[in-house]
Design goal:
About 25% of the residues lie in helices and about 20% in strands. It is built from 9 helices and 15 strands. A 9-stranded mixed β-sheet has the order 3-2-1-4-5-6-7-8-9. Strands 10, 11, 12, 13, 14 and 15 form a 6-stranded antiparallel β-sheet that branches. It has about 325 residues and is α/β, with parallel strands linked by helices.
């Protein structure tokens, strides 16, 4: 998606997300909140783990490598609660800024109202603060510590705003819209980790084919329409944001025989080799590549695999997966 076609009411960080150019840095799964709609999986929730674009990592150098893989123009820091590991946030974000340059835009989510001391520690390594007050305090937001955090953050030069799920009560934020730089509403989605909590509240999806919760667009309408408010639908996240990020990763990580799809996944052939591999090579197009795997199979251009006579090799399949050896999407026996 071209930058000149983006919606006007986006924060700097969101503009890069729209074109899939932001590294997602999950800095910790630890959190001192118990939000009933939290979507974190058991592999992350309440665990002190770090991920960069769904790759488990431990060092800033690994985060930089993942950023290089997708030509990242920025980073989104999330969790858990990043402020519970603020020293780690500073370490990783400082390293990313040093490597990619000061224009590498970094935004950070937090469920807390950052203190003046916490904000001071983030100056120079984080550009944008996105606060997520828990739903139960929305009605009291005007008398909460978040008001002071907005003032402190703006005084220190941060872009600052709110990012919350679409739930009833968004109207309580209306008096604060003029004091923030942006206000993002994420369409409430069904998730395996919070499914029981959603059932208890009689929530259900709009239809069996999507995760969007019925009524969530109506709740967003309490303030949606204000020039600083952006409503991010679950459809957009799946069909645009994720796809564009996958395309960037695929362009840098695909092997010569991987076919990059319109969705940013890669497709290739997998074939068992029975006998001498040298017997198969003559059937491959000149200059073709293949990769020998530890399990005795070869991976290659799936279209060329179809042209190899059946007398060579055993089981064959076409595999579609996320790039950079990511999650398998589909396996098609041949």
């Amino acid at each position: 998606m071209a930058k000149d076609k983006l919606p006007k009411n986006l924060s700097d960080g969101c503009r890069l997300c729209y074109i899939g150019a932001k590294l997602v840095l999950f800095i910790t799964g630890r959190c001192d909140r118990t939000c009933w709609y939290c979507p974190l999986s058991e592999e992350r929730k309440d665990l002190d783990v770090i991920y960069a674009n769904d790759q488990k990592i431990t060092t800033p150098e690994e985060a930089i490598a993942e950023g290089e893989m997708m030509d990242a123009l920025g980073t989104g820091v999330t969790g858990g609660e990043p402020l519970m590991e603020i020293e780690r946030v500073v370490e990783f974000c400082s390293a990313l800024k040093k490597h990619f340059g000061k224009d590498h835009q970094i935004h950070m989510y937090t469920g807390r109202a950052p203190t003046e001391e916490e904000l001071a520690a983030l100056v120079g390594c984080v550009d944008e603060i996105r606060m997520h007050p828990p739903h139960e305090i929305w009605k009291d937001i005007l008398t909460s510590p978040y008001v002071q955090s907005i003032a402190d953050a703006k005084k220190m030069g941060f872009l600052v705003g709110f990012e919350v799920p679409s739930l009833p009560g968004l109207r309580h934020f209306f008096p604060l819209l003029d004091s923030v730089d942006f206000f993002n509403i994420n369409q409430l989605e069904w998730g395996d980790a919070c499914a029981d909590n959603m059932r208890e509240r009689k929530l259900e999806t709009e239809n069996p084919l999507c995760n969007a919760i019925k009524g969530s667009t109506k709740w967003a309408g309490e303030i949606n329409g204000h020039p600083k408010v952006h409503y991010c639908t679950s459809t957009f996240k799946d069909s645009v944001q994720l796809r564009e990020r996958l395309k960037r990763i695929a362009m840098n990580s695909a092997r010569p025989f991987d076919m990059i799809t319109e969705d940013g996944t890669v497709m290739y052939g997998s074939m068992e080799v029975n006998g001498d591999l040298e017997m198969i090579i003559p059937y491959l197009r000149a200059g073709s590549y293949y990769e020998e795997m530890e399990d005795g199979t070869i991976e290659l251009d799936w279209q060329q695999m179809r042209k190899i006579p059946r007398k060579f090799g055993g089981e064959r399949k076409i595999i579609e997966r996320y790039p950079n050896n990511g999650m398998i999407v589909e396996v098609i026996p041949q």
